[in-house]
UniProtKB/TrEMBL annotation:
Basic and acidic residues composition bias: residue spans: 106-115
Organism lineage string: Eukaryota, Metazoa, Chordata, Craniata, Vertebrata
Residue pairs linked by disulfide bridges in the UniProt entry: C454-C486
Family stated for the protein in its record: Belongs to the glycosyl hydrolase 47 family.
GO CC field: endomembrane system
Domain of life according to the entry: Eukaryota
Keyword Transmembrane helix on entry: yes
Organism, scientific name: Pagothenia borchgrevinki
Name the UniProt record assigns to this protein: alpha-1,2-Mannosidase
Enzyme Commission identifier(s): 3.2.1.-
Catalytic activity of the protein: N(4)-(alpha-D-Man-(1->2)-alpha-D-Man-(1->2)-alpha-D-Man-(1->3)-[alpha-D-Man-(1->2)-alpha-D-Man-(1->3)-[alpha-D-Man-(1->2)-alpha-D-Man-(1->6)]-alpha-D-Man-(1->6)]-beta-D-Man-(1->4)-beta-D-GlcNAc-(1->4)-beta-D-GlcNAc)-L-asparaginyl-[protein] (N-glucan mannose isomer 9A1,2,3B1,2,3) + 4 H2O = N(4)-(alpha-D-Man-(1->3)-[alpha-D-Man-(1->3)-[alpha-D-Man-(1->6)]-alpha-D-Man-(1->6)]-beta-D-Man-(1->4)-beta-D-GlcNAc-(1->4)-beta-D-GlcNAc)-L-asparaginyl-[protein] (N-glucan mannose isomer 5A1,2) + 4 beta-D-mannose; N(4)-(alpha-D-Man-(1->2)-alpha-D-Man-(1->2)-alpha-D-Man-(1->3)-[alpha-D-Man-(1->3)-[alpha-D-Man-(1->2)-alpha-D-Man-(1->6)]-alpha-D-Man-(1->6)]-beta-D-Man-(1->4)-beta-D-GlcNAc-(1->4)-beta-D-GlcNAc)-L-asparaginyl-[protein] (N-glucan mannose isomer 8A1,2,3B1,3) + 3 H2O = N(4)-(alpha-D-Man-(1->3)-[alpha-D-Man-(1->3)-[alpha-D-Man-(1->6)]-alpha-D-Man-(1->6)]-beta-D-Man-(1->4)-beta-D-GlcNAc-(1->4)-beta-D-GlcNAc)-L-asparaginyl-[protein] (N-glucan mannose isomer 5A1,2) + 3 beta-D-mannose
Region of interest called Disordered, as start-end residue ranges on this chain: 62-115
Length: 636
């Protein structure tokens, strides 16, 4: 190879004198010091900081469904031109708690029963009016009549007797789950009040970086669970915190998906269960803060948003600045309700546009890949998964249909179309006879099923009845088979808890073959499917399987000050991850409680659960638009 001499530069020492070299070295060392110092100002999750600085605050595992292998923890700085980097979390302080008169179930129910038809209201409906109605929610004060909504429910939300069954063993199990919730809550309250999650081993709080400086994720995620369990003192504490201390004026980097499913979902459910107006006000205000994420050439939102400045960007780990299917596809239920409550159609328009983009684009073999460019509207990679990165997109299609009182035909068509493609390309049977959902990478199957994918038993179950008549039994059978496989992933471990991912290759079946797939972080998906399958079939095995999970959680995850995830489900010498995830309170314990309750506690005839298990009512348009709705609520 020939080295050419640069003009004016001598070959020896690039023509620098000793003093020049010294100045250059000084400048270089200054630069290095500056860069290293800057690491201290980066958010906790940034990879460089995790590499160079102490690891004590880093999370060993991933959380939500849009994430894979710790991906979601890596919030990246804005990359796109013209975007200002966010400043990090706001320094919101927990305000002092002022005691308010507490609310009991009875009081709330009584208040709701009174004044039903007398209220002056504008009819709520599924908003589809033109964009000329676009306005801030404050221009449409109080247009939703809560009492009217209540009159349209077929069953009382809490059932006839709070959902208590006539079977003493089931009731005892239900009480046990309630005790677990109280224990988890009390410890959160004691050691982590106002923080996002409890660290039960170190007995402190965790803020994390998924919620853009919003605090109290465990409180918001627990509101409805505490309420349906009748833990009213605890519910009142939570409610009071929301009233006095939930500060939405944060200025940090948030996951649009996580804020939506936990905060928007949690506040919506709290509103629909209790009728407390401040929940509605807060949730609409928060919803408006999420809207700038949709300002992209296609209207497909980016994954990360600064709640203060409204700048948004894509996850640094998502290929080529793409948005994630499970993230932009998991907004529909909440956004429809935001329009319903605010009477502002903008929320509905945003999610309807996502549908439009998805309907227009070519789908490989009818499948929906996990990565889509918000700029071009094209798929970025052909990775398809019913687990992480894809999961709740499918869930929200069937639930959108059900929540629309079966009027959203578009969602129905998309759901059954997607399910057909999934069955044709992803569903597999192992040599040992277990049915599972593989992942698809550009036509090549990866015989792995994530814990996250285990929600699909329940999803296929609730959608079975609305499929083609000749396919209904088949769907119910498929749902049962998948739930059985997921149960197997639990029974084949020493702890009787399931791993983060299990495989069907190298001779193994339904077991984790890789070291970093062996953890369990208190996830709900397997129990979620037990709950749905119980309601659909009343096969007692689902309650038994749920009880096995309760015992395993008690034995391996309960520690002195809360519940913790474990690092290896295959060993009995527990290594705890020191994290009580907020979804444990919102989902895992709620689904267990529902499993041991009567079907009329949050009846599936009236409610759909968002992907964080927050119940949202079915919008029964025919009833809501009836000028004089009859009280269809069954007396308690
Ligand atoms: C929850 O936050 C939601 O269920 C989400 O859809 C995926 N997973 C976590 C719990 O595992």
């Amino acid at each position: 190879m020939v080295f050419r001499k640069l003009p004016g530069v001598s070959a020896s020492g690039m023509g620098l004198r000793l003093s020049q070299k010294f100045v250059f070295l000084l400048f270089l060392s200054g630069l290095v010091t500056l860069c290293f110092g800057a690491l201290f100002f980066l958010p906790d999750s940034v990879r460089l900081k995790r590499i160079f600085l102490s690891k004590t605050e880093t999370q060993p595992v991933t959380v939500g469904s849009g994430s894979e292998n710790d991906a979601r923890e890596h919030l990246k700085r804005p990359k796109e031109q013209g975007m200002t980097p966010a400043k990090g979390e706001s320094s919101t302080k927990l305000k002092s708690l002022i005691r308010k008169p507490s609310v009991s179930h009875e009081a709330t129910e009584e208040r709701l029963a009174g004044g039903k038809a007398q209220e002056d209201f504008t009819l709520p409906r599924l908003i589809t009016e033109s964009a000329s109605m676009k306005a801030s929610s404050s221009d449409h004060p109080d247009t939703f009549s809560y009492n009217k909504f209540k009159g349209c429910l077929l069953k009382p939300p809490l059932g006839r007797d709070g959902g208590q069954t006539s079977d003493p063993t089931t009731n005892e199990r239900r009480e046990k789950v309630k005790e677990m919730m109280k224990f988890a809550w009390d410890n959160y309250k004691r050691y982590a009040w106002g923080k996002n999650e409890l660290r039960p081993l170190t007995k402190n709080g965790h803020i994390g970086n998924m919620f853009g400086g919003l605090k109290g994720a465990s409180i918001i995620d627990s509101l409805d669970t505490l309420y349906i369990m009748g833990l009213m003192e605890e519910y009142n504490d939570a409610k009071e915190w929301v009233q006095t201390s939930l500060d939405l004026n944060s200025n940090g980097e948030a996951s649009l998906f996580e804020v939506n499913i936990r905060y928007v979902g949690g506040l919506l459910s709290a509103y629909y269960l209790t009728g407390e107006e401040f929940y509605k006000k807060k949730v609409v205000e928060l919803g408006e803060k999420l809207l700038p994420a949709f300002n992209t050439p296609t209207g497909i939102p980016r994954g990360v948003i600064n709640l203060g400045s409204g700048t948004s960007w894509s996850w640094g780990w998502a290929s080529a600045g793409s948005s994630i299917l499970a993230e932009f596809g998991t907004l529909h239920l909440e956004f429809i309700h935001l329009s319903e409550l605010s009477r502002n159609p903008i929320f509905t328009e945003k999610v309807m546009n996502i549908r439009k983009v998805l309907n227009k684009i070519e789908k490989p073999h009818g499948l929906y890949p996990n990565f889509l460019s918000p700029v071009s509207g094209n798929w970025v990679q052909h990775h398809v998964s019913i687990g992480g990165l894809g999961d709740s997109f499918y869930e929200y299609l069937i639930k959108s249909y059900l929540m629309s009182d079966k009027s959203d035909d578009d969602a129905k068509k998309m759901y059954y179309g997607a399910l057909e493609a999934i069955e044709a390309n992803l569903v597999q049977k192992s040599p040992g006879g277990l049915t599972y959902m593989a992942e698809w990478r550009g036509g090549i199957l990866d015989h792995k099923m994530g814990h996250l994918a285990c929600f699909s038993g329940g999803m296929i179950g609730i959608g079975a009845d609305d499929g083609e008549p000749e396919k209904r039994q088949h769907y119910l059978d498929l749902a049962a088979e998948i739930t059985h496989t997921c149960h197997e992933s639990y029974t084949r471990s020493a702890t009787k808890l399931g791993p983060e991912a299990f495989r069907f290759d190298s001779g193994g079946e339904a077991t984790a073959t890789r070291l970093n797939d062996r953890y369990y972080i208190l996830r709900p998906e397997v129990i979620e499917s037990y709950m749905y399958m119980w309601r659909l079939t009343h096969d007692p095995k689902y309650r038994e399987w749920g009880w096995e999970a309760v015992q395993a959680l008690e034995q391996h995850c309960r520690v002195e000050s809360g519940f913790s995830g474990i690092r290896d489900v295959y060993t009995l010498t527990a290594s705890h991850d020191n994290m009580q995830q907020s979804f444990f309170l919102s989902e895992t314990l709620k689904y267990l409680y529902l499993l041991f309750s009567d079907d009329d506690l949050l009846s599936l005839e009236d409610w759909v659960f968002n992907t964080e298990a927050h119940p949202l009512p079915i919008i029964r348009r025919s009833c809501l638009e009836d000028p004089a709705p009859q009280d269809k609520t069954v007396s308690e």
